[in-house]
Design brief:
The chain has one domain. Helix content is about 70%, strand content about 0%. The chain is built from 20 helices and no strands. Helix 1 crosses helix 8, helix 6 runs parallel beside helix 9 and helix 9 runs antiparallel to helix 10. The longest helix has 23 residues.
């Protein structure tokens, strides 16, 4: 009993630290004056021409929250409104409570389910600032953690079609998963791709039925606007790094090509699919044109997939360090300090390339997942 208590003491200490930080944001978080207001507005405006209208979103948000939030507008895919619609029929506080319960439960389930595969997971989850930010800010990225975790379990059980269907739900933030389809193509995981394609088709149908046929065109126009990219210098990705450094756009394009080339080289020389699945998430976060601190909670499933499959000290240390609070404090400090996180993530990517690229089947892997 004493040894078990000693093992869980760091986890408890991490949770106390996170709760202390959450306490500082308690008033705004408890009132729901956060990003959930945009999701609620999306559900309420579904089926109207105002779904992506900034003035309509701002007016609705102010009416339900009581304060004006300039940058809180609905920018997600139109199919998502079919999922949000039932929540939007409830009073705002009730909808927010149910949503918060769902996101918190997603994180708890993931940590509980994968703690045997990755004993270090509870400790790093207890210190995870992106997880805290997602919960406090009313973000839905914890749902993506559950989706990717569930897909990983289905892939292990060779239920590839179901895994693809579940992965299609990650389209609510598709830009964070750009390397997953590439990985599926390279490894010829056709059933997963088929499930993802079927899921995408169904979601598109939902978008047309619930949000209207014009919603797809309006969504594409929103993606091309600056509404979804208001604070580029704070983004923990390559675009944020280039913005802080005020470098020329072609440098970002060149570095993105370098990242893609690095992933391709790894994927072509490595057979362990689960290891590559986690690697694809990490690489995808770096090149996502738009991401925020809370999106990096996806490094938790990446950590599980990578650490459970590799015994390389360099990879394990790199993944552990990127999950500690230190790089996130730099990200929160604003420019120029916010450049530290994407620079650190580049070092993680470099570690993957340095360890996995030189040799094909002599990798330090715990086990090989059959395709």
């Amino acid at each position: 009993m004493g040894k078990r208590a000693l093992q869980w003491a760091p986890v408890a200490l991490g949770l106390v630290c996170l709760l202390s930080l959450a306490y500082l944001q308690r008033a705004r978080a408890l009132a729901g004056q956060n990003d959930f207001a945009a999701l609620y507005a999306g559900g309420r405006l579904a089926g109207t021409p105002d779904l992506y209208s900034r003035p309509a979103n701002q007016a609705l948000v102010q009416s339900v929250v009581g304060v004006r939030m300039e940058d809180v507008v609905y920018t997600r895919p139109p199919f998502y409104t079919a999922i949000l619609k039932p929540l939007s029929l409830l009073p705002y506080r009730a909808a927010y409570a149910l949503f918060s319960l769902a996101t918190l439960s997603s994180l708890v389930w993931f940590v509980w389910r994968f703690s045997n595969d990755c004993p270090e997971l509870p400790f790093f989850a207890a210190l995870n600032l992106p997880a805290l930010a997602a919960l406090v800010e009313g973000q839905d990225t914890p749902l993506l953690v559950a989706f990717t975790g569930g897909a990983l379990l289905l892939i292990r059980r060779r239920r590839d079609l179901a895994a693809g269907l579940l992965l299609s739900l990650c389209a609510i933030k598709f830009h964070l998963f750009l390397f997953i389809p590439l990985l599926l193509l390279l490894k010829r995981r056709w059933r997963i791709l088929g499930g993802a394609a079927l899921g995408t088709a169904l979601l598109t149908l939902f978008a047309v039925l619930v949000a209207g046929p014009g919603s797809l065109k309006a969504y594409l126009a929103t993606l091309r606007s600056n509404v979804a990219n208001p604070y580029a210098e704070m983004m923990p990705n390559l675009h944020g790094l280039i913005t802080v450094l005020q470098a020329l756009p072609w440098i970002e394009a060149a570095l993105s090509i370098l990242v893609i080339a690095g992933f391709l080289a790894i994927a072509l020389r490595t057979n362990n699919f689960e290891l590559l699945f986690g690697t694809a998430i990490v690489f995808g976060l770096q090149v996502s044109f738009h991401s925020e601190l809370m999106d990096d909670v996806l490094l938790l499933p990446a950590f599980v997939a990578v650490v459970s499959q590799s015994s390389s000290p360099s990879i394990r240390i790199a993944m552990a360090l990127i999950l500690t609070p230190i790089p996130y404090f730099f990200a929160l400090a604003g420019a120029p300090y916010s450049a530290v996180f994407p620079a650190a993530l580049f070092l993680v990517l470099g570690t993957f390339v340095a360890v996995l690229l030189p040799r094909r089947n002599s990798l330090a892997l715990n086990r090989e997942n059959p395709g």
